[in-house]
Amino acid sequence: MLLTINGEEREVEQLSTVAELLTLFKLEQKILVIELNRDIVDRDAYANTPLQEGDKLEIVHFVGGG
């Protein structure tokens, strides 16, 4: 499956949902903002938000510091 993630085309195994993608990249425990095809995905909807060939995602995670 070909996805564009943070501006970079990536070939990944066949995935059904945003939640599966986050698990693949070991990001499921991080505080994130996910944009799928220019729409923000609600955190509660990750497991129900389908992915399709050619989707464009932006994944932003927050880092604390001072």
Automatic annotation (TrEMBL):
InterPro entries: Beta-grasp_dom_sf, Mopterin_synth/thiamin_S_b, Thi_S, ThiS/MoaD-like. It comes from the Bacteria. This is Sulfur carrier protein ThiS.
